[in-house]
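Annex B. Sample input.
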Amino acid sequence: MIMDKVHEECGVFGIYSPEGNQVSHALYSGLMALQHRGQESAGIAVCDTAGPKGNITVKKGMGLVSEVFTSEDMTRLSGNIGVGHVRYSTTGGSTVENAQPIAMNYIKGSLALVHNGNLINADAMKEKQMHRGQAHYTTTDSEVLAYEIVSKRVRSKNIEEAVHKVAGVMKGGYACIVMSPRKMIAFRDPLGLKPLVFGEKDGNYIFASESAAILSVGGKLIRDVRPGEIITVTKDGVKSDESLCKKKMAHCVFEYIYFARNDSVIDGIYVYDARKKAGQALAKTDIPDADIVAGVPDSGLVAAQGYAEASGIPFSLLFHKNSYIGRSFIKPTDEERKNAVRMKLSVIKSVVEGKRIVLIDDSIVRGNTMRQIIAMLREAGAASVHVRISSPPFLYPCYYGTDVPSAGQLIASEHSTEDVRKSIGADSLKYLDISDFREMTGGLPLCKACFDHNYPIT
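Annex B, continued. Sample output.
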């Protein structure tokens, strides 16, 4: 993974087979399809609805999905209902203790929870828990949420009522799946900041952060979980509660810029099409004299194709990407991280030499990676490198579960476009205009706070 990128917090996946089919392998496959959303840890929790009530089996660990689970684990994780999670931490340290799912036993039973997002009122919720004498050493929003559901469940007629009570006071961006020994409940924040979709395969019900994960297990997408909706699945079928739904929505624009897979559909928008439209919008004005258009793998490739089509400049691949090296964010020194970029990407010299290049990427955060990539292109003989970014300049942090750092770490927050251009060594630099988001996502209501400081939740 290249260091100088914005990261999602995690991906969630859940499946329930009323017919009693084993779900562990589907959970594994679903998490593999969501691996891009988090590479620090992975976990699965399963239960057999026909077995002893409360018998939830959990396996989680640090690393990629393929590193955490063995074939023996898949056999041991026996059950027809389960949830899974891949994590990139934005709250709480990168430790196995903070890996999900979070499984808990309590006086009325047990549950397992997976959560994507950040709660901006997590500290207030924790303070109330402590005031009630339910003090816990919690380090993540997800743990606070799990304890809150358990607390409400003790005084509720069922788990659905407890989830409804908690969802009614949660503030932030979130997509959650809760598994009890007999039920699965999925719910999403009322603004729709975090994606959550609902699907089906051969009578099995599936929830996931992205439609691509449902398709990866041979399922079909039914629809998005509506912002604010709580969906409960039992052996008797599916029940929807829309009492917390609101008219105001603000879907995270970065799902369409970078986070989601190209083959996903989120809130009715095809991610591939959105990225291609962003590239086309970049080519509306001020097209430089250039011989080829290229994208930084993998996030800039689709936007580069759109730019090439709109500008008439041929699209070309400039880099070979090595997909088999370790994750560069865990390298202990800056020098090793820089070397990891060269290990991850190598320039195809025969394509680059003597060429005037338009280079497309989805964002510039700190500028370190783009600076190094441009240097590599110049070393390979590029005549010029014109950088085009398929998002506006990052100016403000995110509080809803996206790892946008503080403003002081965002190069565009403290420097003009010209200063950034000089810093990264480009011949020219242009960003997507924020007004182009409307065409890019078909007028979908968006959260753009990291670009315009208009936070939908305060």
